[in-house]
Specification:
two-stranded antiparallel ribbon, five-stranded parallel beta sheet, 7 strands, 155 residues
């Protein structure tokens, strides 16, 4: 894992699941598994979050909420799809209102398989996401100043 300049903040959203993966996400935050040892802070505000943990599949009711939460997060950001429902729709993929995995609505950086995903796998996915986050942050810092300036702006 790479060294991060600041503690990464995560936000968790249950798109529509059986709550099995949600329980495992909470287990990863407990002292038994202690994902906070990586400096991770859990937040409820997407404007402060760096890592978006999503469980459950996408349907018509939560599609806009998922997209809006993602759009509120500052760049750079990473998305972790946790569980088979978030990755592909899972056992609910044939339901009339299920669109599939969350990658149908927002870009996903890390897929964590399982039904329910184990806390160890979730932590592994978060650690991979932290590496991707650092690479994205480095790429943003390496951009030339001219490229960072919006088109049409003149000084």
């Amino acid at each position: 894992m790479t060294y991060l300049a600041k503690s990464p903040w995560i936000i968790h959203y249950d798109a529509s699941s059986c709550n099995g993966c949600d329980i495992e996400v909470l287990a990863a935050l407990t002292p038994v598994y202690d994902v906070e040892r990586f400096g991770i802070v859990n937040t409820g505000n997407p404007k402060h979050a760096d890592v978006f943990l999503v469980t459950g599949s996408v349907n018509e009711k939560n599609r806009e909420i998922l997209k809006n939460t993602y759009d509120l997060m500052p760049d750079p950001k990473v998305v972790v799809a946790i569980g088979i429902c978030a990755t592909s729709g899972g056992i609910f993929r044939e339901c009339y209102n299920v669109m599939g995995g969350i990658d149908k609505v927002i870009p996903v950086d890390v897929f964590v398989p399982g039904c329910a995903a184990r806390p160890e796998a979730i932590i592994d996915g978060v650690v991979k996401a932290l590496g991707i986050l650092e690479a994205k942050r480095q790429a943003m810092n390496d951009r030339p100043a001219a490229a960072a300036k919006p088109a049409g702006d003149s000084v």
